[in-house]
Amino acid sequence: MAQTPLSMEPTGWYQVAWSNEIAIGDVHTMKYFSRDMVAWRAASGRLSVFDAYCEHLGAHLGYGGRVEGENLVCPFHGWQWNEQGRNVCIPYEKRPNKGRRIRSYPVVERNHAVWIWFDVDSRPPYFEVPDMFTAFGDDPSDADNYYPPIPGGTLFHKQRELHPQYIMENGVDFAHFKFVHQTPFMPEFTRHDFDGPVSYVDFTIAFEEGVTLETASSGVYSVNAGLGCSITKSWGMVENRTMPAVTPVDESTCDVRFTVWIGKKPGEEQATELTKYGKVMTDLVVEQFDNDVEIWSHQRYSDPPALSQREFKGFTALRNWAVQFYPGGDSSYGRDPARPESGAIVPLHPSAIAATA
User: Which residues belong to any copy of the Rieske domain (predicted)?
Assistant: First the structure.
């Protein structure tokens, strides 16, 4: 991939693990946004994410560090740090060092995933990670109608040369569906608008041969929170929901994660794990996403792009909206979906109702 001109430090929520990867007592090392980090789970089950280095003498807490109750203990001198990154114990002193603090990151566990909030100026979160079911107006109990996505319904690519914005632009790129995913027609967008840091992109689509736009009775709803968090719900076809997540590692690479929920087929309502049918359907969905990843990994970010007349409105609106997440960007853009430049289309589906409820 040619080096992108886009910053690799956009504000937002980013997936750094699946929840089952970090058990109670675990200290998990990782690197994101060019920063060494550790994720650790306290005895209570609470998960915290820190910068990796002890503020005392700089020991890496991921190599020999341990969890003791609700604190993370440095392997070098036993200093203890609580979930806020504050020192609460120096074992050879009467008092902790209250003046030093390890940078900690807001953490949310949702949709079987671990999300951290990143902002170069350390501003607190101002939007949420959408729930895979309630964001589309569904009841949380509807999750029981899907096979558990963990561990069999996931895909992970480590340090691919791509950018989080690519996946957002992919959602408004109607033409690629026919050529990359072999759909019988190009999708018809039924919603494309913005509510501050959240975008909604819904469209009619089908994958069966012979189906036309006029006869299609299936499609996709999509809710995108910032550039790092996207969820989709398919309707009128094989029941599935997906969660692609692209998280910057350094100035040129990102980790790519993909999670798939497949609706249970009749007779398998009590299944507590992915069945043969569920795995076959999962693999089909994963294959489609992987086709996109292969292209993104070798893509050059064109600015300005050579857009066709039909593409201009969607891509321009998306790129204008994305500016707000970059350092120095305008966070006021997109708060009024009625603005002509938002590309707003009258919402027709449950995602709109859920967003305004």
Answer: 13-116
